[in-house]
Amino acid sequence: MNTLRTAMLLAAMTALFMGVGYLIGGSGGMVIAFLIAAAMNLFSYWNADKMVLSMNRAVEVDESNAPEYYAIVQSLARQAGLPMPKTYLIDNPQPNAFATGRNPQNAAVAATTGLLQQLSHEEVAAVMAHELAHVQHRDTLTMTIVATLAGAISMLGNFAFFFGGNRDNNNSLGIIGVLVAMIVAPFAAMIVQMAISRTREYEADRRGAEICGQPLWLASALDKIARGAERIRNPDAERNPATAHLFIINPLSGERMDSLFSTHPNTDNRIAALQAMAQDMAGGAPASARQPMPRQADGQRPSGPWENRAAEQPEQPPARPKSNPWGRNPTGPKGPWS
What we know:
This protein is about 55% helix and about 5% strand. It has helices at about 1-55, 65-80, 115-120, 120-135, 140-160, 160-165, 175-210, 215-230, 235-240, 265-280, and strands at about 60, 85-90, 95-100, 105-110. It starts with a helix and ends in a 56-residue tail after the last helix. The chain has about 350 residues and is mostly helical. The chain is elongated, with a radius of gyration of 22 Å.
């Protein structure tokens, strides 16, 4: 099903790219657009994740230079039954995070330094669990390819005026077609992004809450990230708006409402869904729905930020996030931002 969904997406984006090519350069422009789209689809499959990480100037870290952050991701990946993804940090004060990669074996998760500095240990765990849910659902390939192709389509539309309207091409629409391409292409690309990301965020919230075991951790994190994104500008995301739908909360200025033009669901709606999930878990959900913590060969639980989970102790109320333990440097004394 995921393979079919990705193939349909690639076909739709390629058709859109060809349509823009026709509006700009007629049948010749459509052929050229098809060749470019085919090359981009192939390139995106193998390299889109690297491009997205590069656009956001993400730096790979490990247990030696980001021990707490790396340990959180490692424990959550084990809990979710996933391979350990590559772990990245972005030197950016806006709290946010995203996942990318063509499959779970080649996945990467990235968090900003703002996320680690402004959120508690438990909230960071919930956010990274959300990103691992995207990996587990194989959303990362689709969303990353959309980011690459949507950016290309928007760029093609923006440059349509300079390359189109030539009397020598066989575009019967002429300058009108060029103007349509300039206006419609970026809008159509944005619609595709919204269709891809909005429903998947709710599913990733639900699965992420199951992985970390505490829906209220993620609810609290979403509230803090949304408020931080409103106050703190993300220059890298503003320069590459086609990647906005990858983040857990829209990193761009504006677009905070659950409307036709929003790349993300309304944050209050997401928090309300997580609060309802927490009430269901506290009320005694069936054991099969609680995803008990797996045990190692020696019978011990893997370490992590969820030792007192409500799923294992349903009589306890859901734990509230603790105060921020990160301090100024979230990666420790050997972090890349020291």
